[in-house]
Amino acid sequence: MVFNRQNSSTRMNKKLYVLPELPYAYDALEPYIDAQTMQIHHGKHHGAYVNNLNAAIEKYPELFAKSAQDLLVALSSIPEDIRVAVRNNAGGHVNHSMFWQGMAPAGQGGEPSGELAKEIEKHFGSFAKFQEKFNDAGVKRFGSGWVWLVKTKDGKLDVLSTANQDNPLSDGHTPIMENDVWEHAYYLQYKNARVDYLKAWWNLVNWDEVEKRFKK
Ligand code: MN3
User: What is the C-alpha separation between 210 and 14, in angstroms, rounded?
Assistant: First the structure.
């Protein structure tokens, strides 16, 4: 049997995107995020983004060689017929993977330290003002989306929000931390009170992870 060289190398490069395991148990973020929300959010929502991303890329298998982040950075170069699917589902995959890593079991929250704490003070005035700006951007995001702390193209810290599953990477910014303000992130526990969820969520921030991203 003769293998076509190109086909076999395509097959070797084809690495499906996979749903990462949570770095903690489903109930580890209680009482701020309940176990059922985590189970559905991770298994069903994030799981669906991964499946849909794999299905979209299937048409251009050479793209499996790229990381999901790289797909978002180079969104304009993605074939037009799958660009929206990649934007939504690579976005959903990257955003949620970062989101899980950016949280830690309750009680380990606290405040940022070192260089990051200094930069936050420099750009926002104080940690409290930064929190206020972040929460405000989250409350004002109409419909579904995300709120972010980013390092902008010119190296400044800024707070912004994006719609749907859009990621700041596609606009040339580097995401440092993020909160999910889709209703599926909080509705079971907080109902329509997004603002209460946003406030409670600070108890879960994994500052070690956020500082690591900031230093990169
Ligand atoms: Mn979500």
Answer: 31
The alpha carbon of 186 and the centre of ligand 1 are apart by a number of angstroms equal to: 9
Q: What share of the chain is helix, strand, coil (3-state, %, to 5)?
A: 55, 10, 30
Return the CATH number of the domain spanning residue range 5-19+34-101: 1.10.287.990
Ligand 1 centre from 78 Cα, in Å?
Answer: 24
The Å distance, Cα 12 to ligand 1 centre, comes to 31
Amino acid at 171: D
Q: How far is the CA of 9 from the centre of ligand 1 (A)?
A: 35
Please write the tens of the pLDDT for every residue from 183-199.
999 999 999 999 999 99
Q: Name the CATH superfamily housing domain 114-215.
A: Iron/manganese superoxide dismutase, C-terminal domain (3.55.40.20)
**Residue extents of the structural domains in the chain:** 5-19+34-101, 114-215
Rounded to 5 degrees, φ, ψ at 18 are: -125, 150
Model confidence band, residue 9 (pLDDT cutoffs 50, 70, 90): very low
pTM value > 0.85: yes
Centre of ligand 1 from the C-alpha of residue 49, in Å: 10
Q: Note whether 191 and 93 are within 8 A (CB).
A: no
Provide the residues around ligand 1 (an ion) whose CB is within 5 A.
180, 182
